[in-house]
Write a structure and sequence with these properties.
Elements: E1 2-6, H1 13-22, E2 26-29, H2 31-39, E3 45-46, H3 66-73, E4 84-87, H4 112-122, E5 128-130, H5 136-146, H6 151-180, E6 193-198, E7 208-212, E8 230-233, H7 239-252, E9 259-264, E10 267-273, H8 277-287, H9 289-292, E11 296-299, H10 305-311, E12 318-321, H11 326-332, E13 339-342, E14 361-366, E15 369-374, E16 386-387, H12 395-408, E17 416-419, E18 424-428, H13 434-445, E19 453-456, H14 464-472, E20 476-479, H15 486-496, E21 499-502
Parallel strand pairs: 1-2, 1-4, 2-3, 4-5, 11-12, 12-13, 19-20, 20-21
Antiparallel strand pairs: 6-7, 8-13, 9-10, 9-11, 14-15, 16-21, 17-18, 17-19
Length: 510
C-alpha cells in the first residue's frame, strides 16, 4: 500500500504516519510535510521520487503533476498508485480579516491540495481519502482489523472531502468577488460548518442542527455571535433558544449604554437602558413581567452579581452577554436548567464597503430559493429626520424617541413601541393593521402610556393611529413618513399638541 500526504493541519499526523508504517504503508509527501515528518524521525519519499515527476516543481504545486494525479485517479490500474490520500486544506479565514486591504488575499488560495483531494474523492471506490485529522483513528482501526477500509467508509470520507472542498471554494469565490467589488454576484456560495445537532427543530417532529459561517478551526477570534458563543452552564440549547438568543443579542448590541432585553418568540417583552446593568434589567422586566416569564435575557455588559440576583427571581430559559463574573455564574447556576452564553465582545455595525462578505448579509428562505439583503443597521435618524408638527419635542422626548426608534427595528412588523425614561413600556408586534399595533402597545402600557413616546417601524396610512396614541397619553411620535395621508397624521398630532418627527427611514421586519 502507498499513501500520499500533503497537509496544512498537522494535528495527529506523526502518530497516524507511525501507525501506517506499522502496516507497511509506503509514504510519499510534499516538501513541507516531508520536512515535518523528518523532524519527527519518520521517513517519507519526496514527490520528485515518483517516475515522470519533476524536481523543478516545488511546494504544493508539485501535487498538480500528472505523475501524482494519475496515480490517484487510476491507482487500481497503475503500478505504484496511491491507495490512501491524506490531504487537508489551509484556512482562508485570514482573508476575511483584510477587507480593507484586498491586495494579496488570493495568495492564500491553494491549488495543489484541492486538485488532489477532488481526484481522490472522485475515485473513492479505490482510494481512502482523509481530509480531517479526526478520521485518522477510525481509518486505522479498519486497516488494522481488515487490512483495508470498507466501501461505506471510503464513500463517507469522500463526501466529507467534497464538502470541505465546496466550503473552501466558497471562501475562495468570496475573495475573488472582493477583488471585483461584487455586492451581489450572479451566483452565490456560502460555506457552512456544522457545530452540533439539536434535539429537534422549531417543533418536536422537525430535525435540526447548528452551522456556523466560519470554521471553528480558525485561529482568528470568531466574529461575536450567538453561533460562536460559549455555553457556560445549563441544559442543551434548542432551535427556538437560538432564534430568541440571536434576537436578544441583536437588540442589546444596538445600544451603547448598559442595556437589557427580554425576548419571547423573537419579539421583545422589554428593552431598557440604565445607569448600570441591574437598573437596565429591572426596567426591562417591568415592561411586562408576566410575558417575560420563560423568555431569554440579553445584556451588553458583563453580568455582575447584583444583576444575577435579580435574574434568578424569575424563571428564564437563557441569558446571553459578553461575559459573566464568577460570582454571577455561581448565583445563576442555582437554576440548573438556565443556559448561560458568553459571547466575549460586542460587535459594531457593519461598514459600508464595496465588498460585502456573506457573514454581513441577511438570508431569508423562500420555497425554491433564497432572498439576500444587507443587514438593517440604519438606526440613527439624525441625518434625515424632520420635525413636522407645530410643537418641537422636548429634550427628554427626543432622547426617548431615539431610544424607541432603535428598539422598534427589532420588533416584527407591523411594529409599534412606547417608551419612557429609556425603557419600553408597550409593544405592538406582528399586527396586520398598524392601528391594532398601536392599540396593543397602548393596552400593554396601560397608565404608563401617559407621558410616553411612540416609534412606528413604518408610516401611518390613516390618522387613526395618531388619534389612538393621543387618547392613551402619548406625547411624541417618531415615524418614517411617506404616506399620501401624512398631512392628516400631522394635523391629528397638532390637534393633540403632540410632537411628530419623520425619519425618512423604514424598519420593516418580516
Amino acid at each position: 500500500m502507498r499513501a500520499l500526504i500533503g497537509v496544512a493541519d498537522r494535528n495527529g499526523l506523526s502518530e497516524f504516519v507511525s501507525s501506517l508504517k506499522e502496516l507497511g504503508v509506503e509514504i510519499v509527501a510534499d516538501d513541507a510535510t516531508q520536512s515535518y515528518l523528518a523532524e519527527q524521525e519518520l521517513e517519507a519519499l519526496p514527490i520528485a521520487s515518483l517516475p515522470e515527476a519533476s524536481n523543478a516543481v516545488r511546494g504544493t504545486l508539485a501535487l498538480l503533476q500528472p505523475a501524482v494525479i494519475d496515480r490517484v485517479l487510476h491507482c487500481a490500474d497503475r503500478d505504484g498508485g496511491f491507495d490512501i490520500v491524506v490531504v487537508n486544506l489551509p484556512s482562508l479565514a485570514d482573508g476575511f480579516s483584510t477587507v480593507a486591504e484586498p491586495s494579496g488575499r488570493l495568495a492564500l488560495v491553494d491549488t495543489g491540495r484541492p486538485a488532489v483531494l477532488r481526484a481522490a474523492a472522485v475515485n473513492y471506490a479505490d482510494v481512502t481519502v482523509l481530509s480531517d485529522p479526526e478520521d485518522y483513528e477510525d481509518v486505522l482501526a479498519e486497516l488494522f482489523r481488515y487490512t483495508a477500509t470498507k466501501e461505506k467508509t471510503r464513500r463517507s470520507l469522500a463526501a466529507k472531502a467534497m464538502s470541505r472542498l465546496a466550503a473552501y471554494d466558497a471562501f475562495a469565490t468570496a475573495l475573488l468577488e472582493g477583488e471585483q467589488g461584487e455586492r451581489f454576484p450572479s451566483s452565490f456560495s456560502v460555506p457552512l460548518f456544522k457545530q452540533l445537532d439539536l434535539r429537534y427543530g422549531e417543533n418536536l417532529h422537525q430535525r435540526a442542527a447548528l452551522y456556523t459561517d466560519m470554521p471553528s478551526s480558525t485561529e482568528l477570534n470568531p466574529r461575536p455571535s450567538v453561533a460562536t458563543a460559549r455555553q457556560l452552564h445549563g441544559k442543551e440549547l434548542s432551535f427556538n433558544n437560538f432564534l430568541d438568543l440571536d434576537a436578544a443579542w441583536a437588540m442589546v448590541t444596538d445600544f451603547a449604554a448598559p442595556t437589557a432585553a427580554i425576548v419571547k418568540h423573537t419579539n421583545p417583552t422589554g428593552i431598557a437602558a440604565g445607569k448600570d446593568l441591574r437598573d437596565a434589567f429591572v426596567k426591562a422586566l417591568a415592561a411586562d413581567p408576566a410575558a417575560a416569564y420563560d423568555g431569554v435575557v440579553g445584556m451588553n455588559r458583563t453580568v455582575d452579581a447584583e444583576t444575577a440576583l435579580e435574574i434568578v427571581k424569575m424563571y428564564f430559559e437563557a441569558v446571553i452577554a459578553p461575559d459573566f463574573a464568577p460570582d454571577a455564574i455561581q448565583i445563576l447556576s442555582r437554576k440548573k436548567a438556565i443556559r448561560l452564553l458568553s459571547v466575549r465582545g460586542v460587535h459594531g455595525p457593519a461598514q459600508d464597503v464595496g465588498w460585502i462578505p456573506y457573514s454581513a448579509l441577511d438570508f431569508k428562505r423562500i420555497d425554491g430559493g433564497f432572498l439576500l439583503q444587507t443587514r438593517n443597521v440604519a438606526s440613527d435618524p439624525s441625518a434625515s429626520m424632520q420635525v413636522v408638527s407645530k410643537r418641537q419635542p422636548t429634550l427628554e422626548e427626543l432622547t426617548d424617541l431615539h431610544f424607541a426608534w432603535r428598539a422598534v427595528r427589532h420588533v416584527k412588523s407591523n411594529g409599534v413601541v412606547l417608551a419612557k425614561k429609556l425603557a419600553l413600556v408597550g409593544v405592538g408586534a406582528g399586527q396586520m393593521s398598524r392601528v391594532f399595533a398601536v392599540d396593543l402597545a397602548c393596552r400593554m402600557a396601560g397608565d404608563r402610556a401617559r407621558g410616553s413616546v411612540l416609534a412606528s417601524d413604518a408610516y401611518f396610512p390613516f390618522p387613526d393611529s395618531v388619534e389612538r396614541a393621543a387618547e392613551a397619553g402619548v406625547t411624541a411620535i417618531m415615524q418614517p413618513g411617506g404616506s399620501i395621508r401624512d398631512n392628516e397624521a400631522i394635523e391629528a398630532a397638532d390637534k393633540a399638541g403632540m410632537a411628530m418627527i419623520f425619519t425618512g427611514l423604514r424598519h420593516f421586519k418580516h
